[in-house]
Design brief:
single chain, mainly beta, 5-stranded antiparallel β-sheet, two-stranded antiparallel ribbon, 8% helix, 33% strand, globular
Length: 109
C-alpha cells in the first residue's frame, strides 16, 4: 500500500461532504485507526475505505458539539470564514485567521 499525504491539515476548518456538520481538525491518522465495530456500524453504502487518512475533528452541528472521526473522502474545506464554536477549541488553538486555527504552544515536563 502506498503512503498518502493528508489533504487537510491540523487547524483547518472543514465540513462533512454528506452530513450537516463542520469542525476543526486536531489530529490525523494516516489510515483508519478506529475499531472494526465502529467501521462496521457505518451503513455499507456510505462506508469509507480504510486506506486513506482519517481526521479527528472538534465538530459541531445545529444541536451539539462533539468529537468526530471522519475519512478524507468525506471532507471538504469549509469556506464560510466562520470560527468553530466547539468549547474545546480555545484549549487547543490560539488564533483563527478565517480559514485556519493556529495550535497553542505545548509545554512538556
Amino acid at each position: 500500500m502506498d503512503s498518502r499525504t493528508a489533504k487537510f491539515r491540523i487547524g483547518q476548518v472543514v465540513k462533512h461532504r454528506v452530513f450537516p456538520f463542520r469542525g476543526v481538525i486536531f489530529d490525523v491518522d494516516p489510515e483508519f485507526a478506529n475499531t472494526e465495530q465502529w467501521w462496521l456500524s457505518i451503513p455499507e453504502e456510505i462506508r469509507p475505505r480504510k486506506d486513506q487518512p482519517f481526521y479527528h475533528l472538534l465538530a459541531e452541528n445545529e444541536q451539539a458539539s462533539y468529537v468526530a472521526y471522519v475519512s478524507e473522502q468525506n471532507l471538504l474545506p469549509d469556506e464560510s470564514g466562520e470560527p468553530v464554536g466547539h468549547p474545546q477549541a480555545a484549549a487547543l488553538f490560539e488564533t483563527f485567521d478565517g480559514q485556519q486555527y493556529r495550535l497553542r504552544p505545548r509545554t512538556a515536563h
